[in-house]
Amino acid sequence: MSHAIMIHETGAAECMRWEAVQVGSPGQGEVRIRHTAIGLNYIDVYFRTGQYKAPQMPFTPGMEAAGIVEELGAGVTDLKVGDRVAYATPPPGSYCEERVMSADRLVRVPDGISDDTAAAMMLKGMTVWYLLHRSYAVKAGDTVLIHAAAGGVGLIACQWANHLGATVIGTVGSDAKAELARTHGCHHAINYNTEDFVERVKEITGGKGVPVVYDSVGKTTFMKSLDCLQLRGTMVNFGQSSGAMEPLDVGILAAKGSLYVQRPTLFHHIATREDLEAGAGSLMDLVGRGIIRIDIGQRFALREAVEAHRSLEARKTTGSTVLVP
Question: What is the catalytic activity of this protein (predicted)?
Answer without folding.
Answer: 2 a quinone + NADPH + H(+) = 2 a 1,4-benzosemiquinone + NADP(+)
